Amino acid sequence: MILRVENLSVSYYMEYGKIEAVKNVTFDLEKGEILSIIGESGSGKSTLAKAILRAIRYPGKIEEGSKIFFNGTDILSMKESDFKREILWKRISYVPQSSQNSLNNTMRVIDHFYDTAVSHGVNDKEEVKRTAKELLKMVRLDPDRVGKAYPFQLSGGMKQRVIIALSLLLNPELIIMDEAVSSLDVATQRYILEIIKDINKKTGVSIIFITHDISIAAFISSRIIVMYAGEIMEEGKTEEVIKNPLHPYTAGLINSVPSINSNVSQIKPIKEGYASIEGCPFNNRCEKAMEICKLSEPPIYNVNNRKVRCFLYGDNKA
Ligand SMILES: Nc1ncnc2c1ncn2[C@@H]1O[C@H](COP(=O)(O)OP(=O)(O)OP(=O)(O)O)[C@@H](O)[C@H]1O
Prior knowledge:
One of its GO terms (biological process) is peptide transport. A hairpin with a 2-residue loop joins strand 12 and strand 13 (306-308). This protein has helices at residues 45-52, 80-86, 109-118, 125-138, 143-148, 156-167, 186-203, 214-220, 238-243, 248-255, 291-295; strands at 3-14, 17-29, 34-38, 60-62, 67-70, 73-74, 92-95, 174-178, 206-211, 223-228, 231-237, 301-303, 306-308. It folds into two domains: 3-229, Rossmann fold, CATH 3.40.50.300; 245-318, no CATH class. It is 32% helix and 23% strand. The two termini are 38 Å apart. The structure holds adenosine-5'-triphosphate. Adenosine-5'-triphosphate is lined by residues 12, 19, 21, 39, 41-47, 59-60, 212.
């Protein structure tokens, strides 16, 4: 196991009250695995990613009792300077949301590689150049032409591939990709997802892939975690979750996506609404809600190697 997140809770303390963005989240990530975390906007995916990267800033706070073990070390109890020096980018790297904008248009692509290397104490320019060229090839870009180019000369898909290559520069064991293909057209998305899968196979790097699109999760990952209102609603092997979603929210996500649900006439969006404060957070949008769902929060039940937070699977259903 490369990563264990245990009882992670993150809140934002606003003037008008507390937003519990991530609530008691626990999961493991195996070495070499691609795990997708899916959920609608606001479900806490990016906050979860930021917590693993120790990037939660005021008014956000990681709550007491939260633990994140990376190769057995609790990274939340490390000194922040040690975490930045020893772990960040070198062992855990990051492809942030709208990352294409993070490239500097006044710097050639190759200089982004030198810059990243130097800021992490790697000064051998020839070595960095060699590695950068290999990585650009790995993301199916022409290393010489693209290396010399400025970001504004590249398409969105090419820039995204440059970012992915950059995230691999220091040979990390884990990459967290936050909506890594969301801003791209469907054909480019597929192409980049293939590249990411290929990188995972060739290098064995573990990947947490954050997306709001269940069809992307179905394509890229071997396991899926479904989040809603900061909580894990369902977790299981991708094939099983897609074929037989247990949670009504997961079923709703699948039924609302045309590329998974081939029968277009059956496509049905999930009922709109905010997360409920009382009971199950999904109860006011759920077609299968029972009386108990309005009154108390369901625990996580284990059902055939799957986890599901829903009273439909408990003994106490009404
Ligand atoms: N810096 C912040 N300050 C205050 N509240 C925040 C901050 N960042 C996130 N939140 C709140 O935390 C909750 C979870 O947000 P988060 O961005 O983690 O969700 P998400 O699933 O990644 O959504 P998206 O895909 O839209 O980024 C939301 O209610 C959001 O408004």
